[in-house]
Amino acid sequence: MHAWIAILLVTLTTPAMAAGTLERITANGRITLGYGAEARPFSFQDSGGKPIGYGVELCARLAGALKAEPRFLQVKREEALRAVAEGRIDLLCDAFIPTPASRKEVSFSIPVFATGIGAVVRNDRFERLTDLVSGRASRTSQPYTFALIAGSRAEPLAIERLRALKIDVKTLAVKDFNAGIDAVTVQRADAFFADRAVLLDTVRRGPRAKELRILERYFTHDALAFALARGDEDFRLAVDDALSRVLRSDDIRGLYTKWFGEPSEETLSLFRLGALRE
Question: What pTM was computed for the model?
Fold first, then answer.
């Protein structure tokens, strides 16, 4: 009974809290921003416990546009959307993929990052694998070995896409991103398929980054966004407007380069495509 009362109270109070978010931020001069301690590269902590990451920096720019002091509050990923829904944080800087289920709980900003399943390969295999997945290279009787994190979301999706391209696939199960990249560098695998955003960050920070490249192709497409409370269109519009100004500006190139490496023109065009027009 007590649990149902708590749920009812949240349901009844959330719209009221959300309705005045922008007004409250303006009055107090402060915005509460949620971040994850280990949600690299979007939001995490540095060695001193300070929140950093692509999402954190983007949120800090947004706070500046709203003329508000950013107050960062750490939240566990499994509790993050609930924290937004309950009004404990105004905006979640750990980017999520909007889904029908999550939209029942929170609302979302315009996309702040385009991701999906990507692949990392050795430099000496880049052209060959690029031609292969684009259909320009002839198939061979010998199967290609692709590393995938066992049990991950990418595992069945990548296999499905590759088989649709009529590529003979032999899979190598690995436990995490570092193991997948190691499999490529020591030539146990021709490529490692995983979330492209995390691949970009992991490769960039790795000791053998100059030996590896990320394929330009996206094998699936996902748009990541920041979560905010439902029912507050004024705040959502202010967030989207502030984000759009950053995504349309030259700042996005520097921000992207810092966390993911130099962006291609195609990547920059995806940011412009998701931004609101002036």
Answer: 0.82
